[in-house]
Write a structure and sequence with these properties.
Blueprint lengths: L2 E11 L8 E17 L3 E8 L11 H13 L4 E7 L10 H16 L6 H16 L7 H6 L2 E7 L2 E6 L5 E8 L5 H6 L7 H20 L2 H7 L6 H4 L6 H10 L4 E4 L6 E6 L1 H16 L5 E7 L6 E2 L1
Parallel strand pairs: 3-4
Antiparallel strand pairs: 1-2, 1-11, 2-4, 2-5, 5-6, 7-9, 7-10, 8-9
The protein binds adenosine-5'-diphosphate.
Length: about 300
């Protein structure tokens, strides 16, 4: 195989109570990438459609992660990358993670799959680090493993794959404003009250249990974030309105996707998911902010070969 085309999905990190450790993978939103072997050694990016991103492989996360793998594998040929961007950078649904993971996944396939998913996560984190300033895996891991993932450690990286209940659907609303990840981090407190920490780890443990036991009610009750959301929701226009609408329409829960501005909701069954999507759509249309809205089943596969 000399060439491969892949779908690299968007992801939701944090998932309310799992700041920096929990994430899940989406199915209907994602980038496409084409990677092909070249006679010349090294890694290049020859095409980027859909977004104004750097072609310099040291500045594009897809190039940085690809180079990390390439330097380890040392093949006697090279790779060229094309990126067809559908996930807007800075949207809070893992735009950089899709690129960083996509390039290493594709190169691994072209090399005959010498690396494990955990090793690919390690290489992709090198790319993610140039977008966010530190080596995060909470968007990378669900892109590569699919479904829900929990980051047990980042160094060395240890990813836990959690089960995905069958009838789970996500709705993502992306208000068309940009929130700098650096600002979204800067407004967070340095220390938190013990009582909030207790609530948060109780919710995270309960959410993990709910995924293992298919307990949708417990899942919904666990989607509560008493630490990050009170601060970051202030940056997202009409966050409280969306949350109220979502809960009034019977969704399991709702929270900030990554560092925002996207907001995710989780629903049991596609019928309820469509109802919740319509409700968010109709109420957000009354605001002054333009937006995009998506409905997606949870993607349990992660990156797909097209
Ligand atoms: P998101 O919150 O949607 O995950 P990030 O804030 O993580 O987005 O990443 C966006 C940043 O990464 C932007 O500064 C962007 O210029 C940079 N970047 C570099 N290469 C890429 C790429 N291939 N795809 C997306 N963003 C990239």
């Amino acid at each position: 195989m000399n060439e491969i085309r892949i779908f690299s999905p968007a992801t939701v990190a944090n998932v309310s109570c799992g700041f920096d450790v929990l994430g899940f993978c989406l199915d209907t939103i994602g980038d496409e990438m084409v990677v092909r072997k070249t006679k010349e050694k090294g890694v290049s990016i020859s095409k980027i459609i859909g977004s104004d991103l750097p072609y310099d492989i040291q500045k594009n996360v897809a190039g940085v992660s690809a180079l990390a793998l390439y330097d380890d594998a040392k093949p006697n040929f090279g790779f060229d990358i094309e990126i067809y961007k559908h996930i807007k950078p800075g949207s809070g649904i893992g735009s950089s993670a899709a690129s960083a993971s996509g390039s290493v996944f594709a190169i691994n396939e072209l090399l005959g799959r010498p690396y494990s998913k955990t090793q690919l996560t390690h290489f992709a984190m090198k790319g993610e680090a140039i977008a966010s300033g530190s080596e995060h895996a909470d968007n990378i891991a669900p892109t590569i493993f699919g479904g829900f993932t929990l980051i047990k450690n980042t160094s060395p990286i240890k990813v836990l794959q959690l089960p995905t209940p069958d009838e789970l659907y996500a709705i993502i609303i992306h208000p068309q404003i940009e929130i700098k990840t650096s600002l979204a981090r800067a407004i967070l407190p340095n220390s938190i009250p013990l009582k909030d920490a207790i609530t948060q780890w109780s919710n995270l443990g309960s959410l993990v249990h709910a995924l293992h036991t298919n307990d949708y009610d417990l899942l919904g009750n666990s989607l509560e974030d008493v630490i990050i959301e009170p601060h970051r929701s202030e940056l997202i226009p009409h966050f409280q309105m969306v949350k109220k609408e979502v809960l009034n329409n019977g969704a399991l829960g709702c929270g900030i996707s990554g560092s925002g501005p996207s907001i995710f909701s989780l629903c049991k069954g596609v019928k309820n998911a469509k109802q919740v999507k319509n409700a968010i759509n109709n109420s957000y249309l009354k605001t002054e902010v333009s937006f995009e809205i998506h409905l997606s089943k949870i993607n349990t596969e992660g990156i797909k070969i097209l």
